[in-house]
Design a protein that fits this description.
Layout lengths: L2 E14 L3 E14 L5 H25 L7 E12 L3 E11 L3 E11 L4 E3 L10 H20 L25 E3 L5 E4 L14 E4 L1 H4 L5
Parallel strand pairs: 2-3
Antiparallel strand pairs: 1-2, 3-4, 4-5, 5-6, 7-8, 8-9
C-alpha cells in the first residue's frame, strides 16, 4: 500500500438573502506515499477544485445577486472509492433558477502508479473501448425504455434534438464495488431532465480486452 489519500473540508461558504442561496463545501486532497507527500498530485487536484468553485461562485454572483429572481448554487463532495488501488472524489454541482441543472466533476488517482487518471488512461491507444462501451449503453437504454414507458433516452426517432452517439473519450466514470466500470452522464446529456444524471454499469467482460 504505497499511497495514502485523505480529504478534508478546507472552506465552507453559506449565503441566503431569501431569494438567493449558496451552499459550498470545498475539499482539499492530501496525498502521501511511503516516503513523502506527493504535492504535485495534490496541488493539481486542489487547484482544479478551487478554480471550479471560484468560477461557479463568481458567475452566480454576477447573474443573480442583487436581482429579484430566485437562484441557488449548491456544491458538495463525496469520496466514492478509496481502496488500495484507486481513489475517486466526486464534486456535485446543483444550480437552480427557473429550472435546475446537476452535473459532476470526478477526480481519480491510480494509487499503484501514483497518477491522476481519466477514462482514456485505462485503455490502449485506440477507440475500441469507446465503441464497445457505447454499444452496451445503447443496449441498456433500449432495454430500459422498452420495459418502462416513463424511461426516456435520446435514442428515439421522434426526438428532434441531438441523439446519443456514444460516450466521450474521457466520459465521467467510477468503479462500482464489484469492480465494474460505471459510466456517468450529466443531467440533460443523454436524457430529459426528469431522468436526472443517468449511470450505466458496464460488465468487465465488455471492455476487458481493451484495458492496458
Amino acid at each position: 500500500i504505497g499511497t495514502l489519500v485523505k480529504v478534508f473540508t478546507i472552506r465552507e461558504y453559506d449565503y441566503d438573502d431569501g431569494h438567493h442561496k449558496v451552499d459550498i463545501e470545498v475539499p482539499s486532497v492530501n496525498v502521501e506515499t511511503l516516503e513523502t507527500k506527493d504535492n504535485n498530485i495534490a496541488n493539481s487536484i486542489n487547484t482544479s477544485i478551487e478554480e471550479l468553485t471560484d468560477t461557479l461562485l463568481n458567475e452566480f454572483n454576477r447573474e443573480y445577486v442583487g436581482t429579484e429572481g430566485y437562484g441557488s448554487l449548491d456544491i458538495t463532495y463525496d469520496v466514492i472509492t478509496n481502496n488500495d488501488n484507486w481513489f475517486t472524489l466526486r464534486i456535485t454541482v446543483l444550480e437552480t433558477a427557473a429550472s435546475s441543472n446537476t452535473y459532476y466533476k470526478f477526480y481519480h488517482i491510480e494509487k499503484l502508479n501514483g497518477q491522476i487518471s481519466e477514462l482514456s488512461d485505462l485503455f490502449k491507444d485506440n477507440s475500441n473501448y469507446i465503441e464497445a462501451i457505447s454499444n452496451d449503453i445503447y443496449k441498456q437504454m433500449l432495454e430500459q425504455s422498452n420495459e418502462d414507458d416513463s424511461i426516456i433516452y435520446f435514442i428515439n426517432e421522434d426526438f428532434s434534438g441531438e441523439q446519443f452517439h456514444g460516450i466521450k473519450t474521457n466520459q465521467n466514470f467510477y468503479f462500482a464495488k464489484n469492480g465494474n466500470l460505471v459510466i456517468v452522464f450529466d443531467k440533460y446529456e443523454v436524457a430529459p431532465g426528469m431522468m436526472g444524471c443517468p449511470e450505466f454499469e458496464i460488465d468487465e467482460t465488455i471492455y476487458l480486452d481493451y484495458l492496458k
